[in-house]
Amino acid sequence: MHQIENERGSLSDLLIKVQKNQSLKEDFTAPTGDLQLVTKVTEDGQNNVPQVILENSGGVPTKILRANDVALQQIASKSEIDIRTVRRLRDHYPTELDTVINAIWQKEPKGVMLRTFTDTDNSDTGVLRALTSSSYKVFDNEDVLQTTLPQLMDSDADWQVVNGTLTDQRMYLRLKSQNQVADAAVGDAMANGLLISNSEVGMGSVNVQQLIYTLACLNGMQTANKSRSTHVTSSRGTDTWSLLTDEAKQADNQALSLKLRDVVTNFADRSTFDQVIEQMKMAHEDKVNAPLPQAVDTLCGILKLPKSDNNKVLDGLMATLQQSGYNYGSPSRATFVNAVTAVGNQDSTLEDNREDWSRLGGKVLNLSPNQWHAVAGVAA
After folding, report:
1. Measured between alpha carbons, how far is 370 from 205 in angstroms, rounded to an integer?
2. How far apart, in whole angstroms, are the C-alpha atoms of residue 306 and residue 296?
3. How crowded is the C-beta side of 78, counted as CA atoms within 13 Å?
4. Contact (CB, 8 A) for 375 and 336
5. Nearest one of 293, 304, 339 to 319, comparing CA atoms
């Protein structure tokens, strides 16, 4: 069994946060008729806080829960109201927001699950982190780590934790292999990697994704091969779940753990990593003749990115041109792969979008010849 190298304490920090969150969790199921939205208005009116009050049968509040943005999005979705409208009402017309949501909850009652964190100083208050269907049951982050860490320690890939992060939406655990390493070009060392992510709040199932890391900057690219990206699912979140006995639910939990264990073990295989290294070697030979700002604009158009992202990619390109393996010769397709993945590392507030930028890096590597010729400014 290998010790997972704990770079900068990132794994220890993640485990501490997950365990702390686990101790604060409290879930409730209730009909929406037992809920009331009361938006707390601040003095400046700029940071109004939607609060969901959970009442018992006597109408006495049992919990006062501050809805975070994830929960607010789910409240909007279940009420079939655009989230932009809900945010506008929250900020400018809070009384009207409460009236509309409460009317829907009372007149169209549905069973819901409220996932919460209880305040440490007051057990009657807390944070509403999710409002899901009453039949929905997530696979907790603690379960994911208890299942995957032993498999990672048993792996011959000799995994090292790059980072472990918790957001309101998901948990992310990124690892790189210390012995599955190869050069795509002089100075461009790359390593096999894994991304394990999970949502406790209904924002997606457990996901295991192969990453390819550029070691000079730790930008991660997701491989485009769909067989290297697996959403590990179960009966949770389906109407079937509410019909299962406790014994059947326990069996389903065990089956999900076994699926996750097998996927993590399989993704330590080196074969796909070697294939991507060969692609990156060829990508270093695909040179760009077009002016770089023009090439960036063309690429962003092909990737269907909003115009506001063009400068982010250009900044990523400029940063890439300063790093080992890319700071000599003409820019290439490999340069642009790294430029796109770099965007996800430029701003820590983009954590929930970093996976998207990693995936886009894989798309750049696999552009069709015509698409790449358009970016590079060369004749087809």
Report:
1. 35
2. 12
3. 25
4. yes
5. 339
Token couple for 339 = 């430029």
CA dist list (Å): 17 to 21, 166, 275: 6, 8, 37
Q: Which among 286, 316, 326 is positioned nearest to 188, based on CA atoms?
A: 326
d(CA 137, CA 149): 22
Beta-strand pair 61-67/122-133: parallel
Helix (H, G, I), strand (E, B) or coil at 90: helix
What are the pLDDT digits (tens) for 140-182? 999 899 888 888 888 888 889 988 999 999 999 999 999 999 9
What are the distances in angstroms from CA 266 to CA 5, 139, 157, 208, 261? 20, 21, 11, 10, 9
CB contact at 8 A, 35 and 105: yes
* Mean of pLDDT values over 221-247: 52
Q: Give residue limits of the domains in the chain.
A: 5-19+138-270, 24-133, 278-376
Q: In what order do the strands lie in the sheet with 35-40?
A: 25-31, 111-119, 122-133, 61-67, 49-55, 35-40
3-state secondary structure of 111: strand
Q: Give the orientation angle of helix 310-320 with respect to helix 292-302, to 10 degrees.
A: 130
Residue 50 has pLDDT above 70, yes or no: yes
Summarize pLDDT for 87-146 with one digit per residue, the tens: 999 999 999 999 999 999 999 999 999 999 999 999 899 999 999 998 877 789 998 998
Q: Is CATH 2.40.50 correct for 24-133?
A: yes
Residue in 163, 174, 168 with CA at minimum distance from that of residue 197 = 174
Record the tokens describing residue 268, joined without a space: 């330590």
Burial class (CB in 10 A: 0-12, 13-18, 19+), 290: middle
Higher pLDDT, 249 or 227: 249
Number of C-beta neighbours around residue 227 at 10 A: 10
Question: What is the rounded CA–CA span in Å between residue 70 and residue 68?
Answer: 6
